[in-house]
């Protein structure tokens, strides 16, 4: 593959060549920890030990690099392991990170509570406020951490504008592209230096794998991230890598349907009197709508909304749906309901990243949209009955 093919073609074929020894159309799953050597130091296929490399992982990394038209993809045991590997490759004691005020709670926890004690400082900013971002950058700043759309409030940040600003000060820009996926947003093409994914979410797409990836063009940094991974061992294991390659083949199809269903869900929520506010970039009422139209090729499958009834209503509603199952995570084919304040974002309660207590987050799946809408309408009735 040369990366000149269309996106769906790359998703299906990059790194997925048939097995030359048997003709199997799907590359085998290499469940092996080690590789027999032909002689001292003579590797048969370039592989030595699976912490350093495994053909199934290579297959996933080739496929993932192709999706972002990137030179390198390095896949890890989780999204946070990928972030950790990247941060260790870039940061040294005394360095500083600027991070958006509604970044994924786990990313913030990693930077503040794991890297903090090792001498890394950070500043939390509103990424929509360019002047605040510029002011937050110091001479020790090494990284600007952007998440767009953000989790869970779906804020949209101008990647190209921030990349220009950061690069003028020699600061690298990382984009957590987990929500948009490379189908809807190409951060490297917009000027970012590094893309991170929790492949647990849309990329894997079937809620059966935990994984992560760092995608980038910088050869030297890629080498440094690989070294961190090799030395520590937070690799994407073969079965997880193989399941992820399978998920990716339908990523463009799934993202299209997630987006269509999410738009319908967001419009239904916006029409309900019980709802104070809907957070979905596909709605014209969303402050980032125009920017999202420019920067993305669709709005994705995540919808958050605030209920007028506060915490009590949010919890009642979260327990009232059937198709939207109450569970952490997102991006699978099945719809999920999350209450950030007590679930995914409990770790940032009381910080600048805390999520309002009346907000619910939906991961809108690819079920029949009429069934999803009916489930939500029923939940409004049940919530009203329960609160009465
Ligand atoms: C889930 C998630 C992560 C962390 O990924 P894991 O695979 O759970 O470690 C990072 N960023 C975002 C936006 C996420 O949703």
Automatic annotation (TrEMBL):
Source lineage: Bacteria, Bacillati, Actinomycetota, Actinomycetes, Micrococcales
Provide the cofactor list for this protein: pyridoxal 5'-phosphate
Q: Which InterPro entries match?
A: Cys/Met-Metab_PyrdxlP-dep_enz, Cys_met_metab_PP, PyrdxlP-dep_Trfase, PyrdxlP-dep_Trfase_major, PyrdxlP-dep_Trfase_small
Top-rank EC class of the record's enzyme: transferase
Signal peptide range equals: none
Q: Which reaction does it catalyse?
A: O-succinyl-L-homoserine + L-cysteine = L,L-cystathionine + succinate + H(+)
Q: Which UniProt keywords apply?
A: Pyridoxal phosphate, Transferase
Chain positions with N6-(pyridoxal phosphate)lysine modification: 201
List the GO biological process terms. cysteine biosynthetic process via cystathionine; transsulfuration
Q: Which domain of life is it from?
A: Bacteria
Q: Name one Pfam family in it.
A: Cys_Met_Meta_PP
Question: What family classification does the UniProt entry report for this protein?
Answer: Belongs to the trans-sulfuration enzymes family.
Q: Which GO terms describe its molecular function?
A: cystathionine gamma-lyase activity; cystathionine gamma-synthase activity; pyridoxal phosphate binding
Q: Which organism is it from?
A: Mycetocola lacteus
Q: List the GO terms this entry assigns under cellular component, sorted alphabetically.
A: cytoplasm
Q: Which CDD domains match?
A: CGS_like
| Protein name (record) | Cystathionine gamma-synthase
Q: Which Enzyme Commission number(s) are on file for it?
A: 2.5.1.48
